[in-house]
Amino acid sequence: MSTETVHPEQILRANGLPTVEVLLHVSGRGSVNDLAAALADLPDVAAVIADDVNAADSA
Fold first, then answer.
1. CB 19, CB 5: distance < 8 Å
2. Residue 57 lies in a domain
3. 8 assigned to some structural domain
4. Longest dimension (CA), the chain
5. In degrees rounded to 5, what are phi and psi of residue 11?
6. Residue 24 in contact with residue 4, Cβ under 8 Å?
7. Is 13 within a domain?
8. Which residues make beta-bridge pairs with 19?
9. pLDDT in tens, 1-59
C-alpha cells in the first residue's frame, strides 16, 4: 500500500464538495463489473469507471 499527502489546494471540487479520485488494482475471481456496480451504489459516489485488463485474455 502506498500513500500520498494531498494538500487542500489539490482537492478537486464538484458542486462545492471535496472530491476524491481513487485508483484500485484488484485481483481475484470476482467480476469487475459487479465490483463497479457495488461501488457506484455507495452514498455520495458520483462516478465509477471500470476496466478489466484481463478481459482480452479470456476472449
1. no
2. no
3. no
4. 44
5. -75, 125
6. no
7. no
8. 12
9. 456 666 666 666 666 777 778 888 888 888 888 988 999 899 888 888 888 777 665 54
7 lies in some domain: no
- Whether residue 28 contacts residue 35, with contact meaning beta carbons closer than 8 Å, is answered with no
In the chain, the number of structural domains is 1
Enclosing domain of residue 34:
22-52
Closest CA to 46 of 19, 26, 25, 23: 19
DSSP string computed for 1-59:
-------GGG-EEETTEEE--------SSS-HHHHHHHHHTSTT--------TTTTTT-
Give the CA count within 13 Å in the CB-facing half-sphere of 32. Answer: 12
